[in-house]
Write a structure and sequence with these properties.
The protein is built from eleven helices and 16 strands. By secondary structure, it is an alpha/beta fold. The chain has a five-stranded mixed β-sheet with strand order 6-5-4-7-11, sandwiched between helices. A five-stranded mixed β-sheet has the order 14-13-12-15-16, sandwiched between helices. Helix 9 packs across helix 10.
């Protein structure tokens, strides 16, 4: 703390970041609430709120009802002041989301990818957007393994190649950039949507496995105690690589023709492995290769096979793009005020 008192501009930035995060998290806040949450003196909070009002960053939304003393004034961010931009990247198209500081999606657009070049449409959109509005964060949802600021994806020869775009965007636009695997973002988004539907189930403690079934691919996003399980090298969730019968992987087995009865046993076995290893509270099933009519029979097989305390509740995810959007909007908004803060070591 002695070093900070010698550098008042750093201390001011720390305080400002703390105040911003409280207002962002609560939606609206009074001076007393901010002081209590941040442990910053009420005088300093008042001074910084006045500065933020004069700067046009926040606005007053009125006064609370009096409890016998002076009415407390309540503040919120101006919704049209700061934005984050998220990109959900696929081989053929990039889904672009503009989000406000509360994580609400205010605009969507699809950007075509030509000749495999994802950088050009992203730069074109960001350059045009920043001429009219201020962005404070960028989110990238990618179909590959995230590792050390880049991601790995299969090329035409089925070999992993590195795509490095995060550091380039961070340097060009001078804002925080978050890079996330698409299935992890989808799992986060589903958890957020589930919490909105069932507010008593907080995503801070949720345990779920989100299985996505696609042609030639079985992927999963795992959340334990509200946190994504990434694994040592961020390869957690690559279920399609698991060997099954002989030399064939699970993804290869799923790609072969099978009737509903065989499909039911196949997916039930996969879920049983996950329940035995991770014991999630919810098993979410989605993806274009999911046979919805088999969900009930899958549950019946598992109910007969596993101890009931081990079997999680099976849920159906009808729209993975909705979950993807929700996850990337949440992650990108969370980076909008990712600024200076104090940490204990």
């Amino acid at each position: 703390m002695n070093d900070l008192t010698a550098k008042p501009h750093i201390l001011k930035q720390v305080n400002l970041s703390s105040i911003r995060r409280v207002i962002q998290a609560k939606g609206t806040a009074t001076r007393a609430e901010i002081a209590q949450e941040t442990r910053i003196s009420s005088t300093t909070v008042r001074s910084m709120l006045t500065e933020m009002l004069n700067d046009g960053a926040i606005e007053s939304v009125g006064y609370d009802e009096s409890s016998g003393g002076r009415k407390a004034e309540r503040y919120r961010f101006k919704m049209d002041r700061y934005y984050g931009v998220a990109f959900c990247i696929t081989e053929a198209v990039i889904h672009c989301l503009v989000v406000d500081i509360c994580g609400q999606i205010v605009r969507t657009e699809q950007l075509p990818v030509l000749s495999g070049d994802i950088k050009e449409p992203i730069l074109r959109f960001l350059d045009a957007f920043t001429k009219k509005s201020e962005i404070k964060s960028i989110g990238l949802g990618v179909p590959g393994i995230v590792e050390d600021g880049h991601y790995l994806k299969n090329n035409s020869a089925r070999e992993l190649c590195k795509v490095d775009i995060r550091s380039f965007l961070a340097e060009r636009y001078r804002v925080p950039v978050i890079l996330e695997n698409d299935l992890n973002a989808i799992a986060i988004g589903f958890g957020r949507c589930y919490e909105k539907q069932f507010p008593s189930d907080s995503t801070q403690n949720i345990n779920l496995a989100y299985l996505s079934l696609n042609k030639g691919c079985i992927s999963a996003g795992f959340i334990a105690g509200g946190k994504i399980i990434r694994g040592w090298k961020n390869y957690a969730g690559e279920l399609g690589l698991i060997p099954s019968h002989g030399e064939r992987s699970l993804a290869e087995c799923l790609a072969e023709p099978m009737d509903d009865a065989a499909y039911t046993i196949f997916i039930a076995n996969l879920i049983a492995w996950i329940c035995a290893v991770l014991n999630p509270e919810y098993i979410v099933l989605g993806g274009p290769y999911l046979r919805k009519e088999c969900i009930g029979p899958i549950g019946d097989v598992l109910y007969a096979r596993l101890p009931h305390e081990m079997l999680g509740e099976i849920l159906y995810a009808p729209d993975h793009w909705h979950d993807y959007y929700e996850g990337m909007a949440f992650l990108t908004a969370g980076k909008i005020f990712d600024e200076v803060q104090l940490t204990m070591e």
